[in-house]
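User: I'm putting together a teaching handout on how multi-component assemblies are represented. Below are the sequence lines for each component of a complex, exactly as they appear in our records. Could you produce the 3D structure of the whole assembly as structure tokens, so the students can see both representations side by side? Please keep the chain order the same as the input.
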Amino acid sequence: AQSVTQPDIHITVSEGASLELRCNYSYGATPYLFWYVQSPGQGLQLLLKYFSGDTLVQGIKGFEAEFKRSQSSFNLRKPSVHWSDAAEYFCAVAPDSSYKLIFGSGTRLLVRP
Amino acid sequence: GAGVSQTPSNKVTEKGKYVELRCDPISGHTALYWYRQSLGQGPEFLIYFQGTGAADDSGLPNDRFFAVRPEGSVSTLKIQRTERGDSAVYLCASTREGAGGETQYFGPGTRLLVL
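Assistant: Of course. Below is the structure of the complete assembly, with chains in the same order as your input.
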């Protein structure tokens, strides 16, 4: 079955530490890939997206993600986390280059001072 | 407006009642999407409008759910005979054209609680 998996429900990191959030998908071809962030009371905001080309994608707020076809993964990274990064992060795919987004269940990031 | 707006921000209703949720997309965006986000889950696609027409309603869970967009701008999601399982955050998004891969701009959502 087609799915998007975010294996970590919660992650806690110290401010200034590096971060990696995992995302795996199961689709035959390379779908469009996205990372969104959701802060309390706010809508989902796009951090970055990948369609093709360079497998390392730069996004807003210092985030980057790397597409690895062999692992069907699209992990999100940040070298130094800020307290304001505390939020819920969602990986999403658009299979078959479509408009329909399929979301993972999210990873909640907590940042220790 | 500058972004997607949704009203009301919160809605509490009783089981069996009818509710309407409103979405005002970014001006000029022809495509509009509704998603539902249950507690602890990611958003799930409900329906996609291109202009005034529902191009894809495959995500609507049953015939109690219906959505309209009569003038190609504001959309209303309508839920009849609400059930407790309908409790969720209903999100709306819009894009300029509705093409694959476009950035979907989301509103803050309407939190629906069915008692």
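A couple of points students might notice: The interface with chain B takes residues 4, 32, 36, 41-46, 49, 51, 90, 92, 94, 96-106 of chain A (CB under 8 Å). The two ends of chain A are 40 Å apart (CA to CA).
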